[in-house]
Design brief:
alpha/beta; 13 helices; kinase; about 400 residues; Ribo/fructo_kinase; single chain; Carbohydrate kinase PfkB domain-containing protein; UDP-N-acetylmuramoyl-L-alanine:D-glutamate ligase; transferase; four-stranded mixed sheet
């Protein structure tokens, strides 16, 4: 704890007035460019341009300091750059969704302080509907110190939760129903567990699809997973949740434990992702295949000379996990973009960008192969700038043009 405190003091040593002025100037610079960028959104009738997406989860202000190399205990170092911008998993993912052209509504909580106002301003400037956020007259808004190591391209987060936490009664029944009205999908990042469960139960009653970001085991997450249609996991979550020894076995286990899930994805950073999609049409005579062996066979088919994201899929099979069981489904291996070291800036929020793109792909009815490649492209674009949001691409970004054109051709 001593070493963390020393680092934070050195990186962020300025008075409260300096902090607010620095944050305000940085937000104005960022928000002004975002407002100008909104003019470049394009409208296509065959895309889910007006689809409503509801998100429930965390928001924050991020203080991002880049250092030449992460300090050792009791070291004092200077930051090479400082950036102040909005963060939080739900806030980041819905910002991504908004820039891709959908209509996101966010359920969360901030305090009526300078950080809370900054959070609201940034979300609103990106087109996120914040009318369902609770603004507490007392307390503090969440914030995170993020130390970006320019040498290893890694980041370390030190988060301070907001206080007091959101409770279900702060979201009235009428507000909840208004938020869910017309929604195509509801997304949860696993935070605000009591409120999230109330929202998820109402969404399930209305047959609105539910996507869960399973980043790590959290209070109340299991209750949310039981209601989920789609799950996107961090690299460590599936094995931690199921105690399986490999990811393929863990994904089989998750589909067996959670019968409502249509697919589960595990993101693996620079190694791409794995997805297991449930099949409901598999015949009893279908061949049984070991899940681990199937994954290895798909990996051998990857073309490592290609830098752009690709996706390889198996045929529908009965996937067997030794000692766990079998499930009928289809396995996918998605690659990440191979980003040159000179272009890789920061991985903060890459998972949120990936999830935002998956949400868009579900609304756009992309094929699984297209969805995973699209999401990897969006995440790769994000990694070329500092912070969780600066690099998020807009709908008209040339890097996404092939996916828009593919959707148009399949819709014709």
């Amino acid at each position: 704890m001593k070493s963390q405190s020393s680092v934070v003091i050195v990186l962020f040593r300025f008075s409260n007035s300096d902090r607010e002025r620095s944050g305000k100037e940085e937000r104005e610079r960022c928000f002004g460019s975002r407002r100008r960028s909104l003019r470049y959104r394009i409208s296509m009738s065959s895309d889910p341009q007006n689809a409503v997406v509801v998100g429930c989860g965390g928001v924050s202000i991020d203080f991002l300091a880049t250092v030449a190399a992460y300090p050792k205990p009791d070291d004092k170092v200077r930051s090479t750059s400082l950036k102040v911008q909005g963060g939080g998993n739900a806030g980041n993912a819905l910002t991504c969704v908004a820039r891709l052209g959908l209509n996101p509504r966010l359920i969360s909580k901030v305090a009526d302080d300078s950080q809370g106002r900054g959070i609201l301003d940034e979300l609103q400037s990106d087109g996120v509907d914040t009318s369902f956020l609770v603004v507490s007259k007392e307390g503090t808004s969440p914030f995170t110190y993020i130390i970006v190591d320019n040498q290893t391209k890694t980041r370390t987060c030190i988060h301070t939760p907001g206080y007091p936490p959101m409770i279900p009664k702060e979201l009235s029944k009428s507000s909840l129903l208004s938020a869910l009205d017309g929604a195509k999908i509801v997304y949860f990042d696993g935070r605000l567990p009591d409120t999230a469960l109330v929202v998820a139960q109402e969404a399930a009653r209305k047959n609105i699809p539910i996507l869960i970001d399973a980043e790590r085991p959290r209070e109340g997450l299991d209750d949310l997973l039981k209601l989920a249609d789609y799950v996107v996991c961090s690299a460590k979550f599936p094995k931690a949740r199921t105690e399986a020894s490999t990811n393929p076995q863990a994904l089989v286990s998750m589909l067996l434990m959670l019968p409502n899930i249509k697919f589960v994805i595990v993101t693996l950073g620079k190694d791409g992702c794995i997805m297991l999609e449930r099949s409901v049409d598999a015949g009893s005579s279908m061949e049984e295949v070991d899940a681990d062996n199937l994954l290895e066979s798909l990996k051998l088919k990857r073309n490592k000379s290609v830098s752009i994201p690709t996706c390889i899929s198996s045929s529908v099979a009965k996937l067997k996990a030794e000692g766990i069981g079998t499930v009928s489904g289809k396995l996918y291996v998605g690659t990440a973009e191979s980003i040159p070291q000179t272009e890789l800036v920061d991985t903060t929020g890459a998972g949120d960008a990936f999830i935002g793109a998956v949400i868009y792909a579900i609304c756009a009815k992309f094929t699984p192969e297209t969805m995973l490649s699209f999401a990897a492209n969006v995440a790769g674009a994000k990694c070329r700038d500092l912070g969780a949001r600066s690099g998020l691409p807009y709908r008209a970004d040339p890097r996404l043009a092939s996916f828009v054109l593919e959707k148009l051709s399949t819709s014709a």
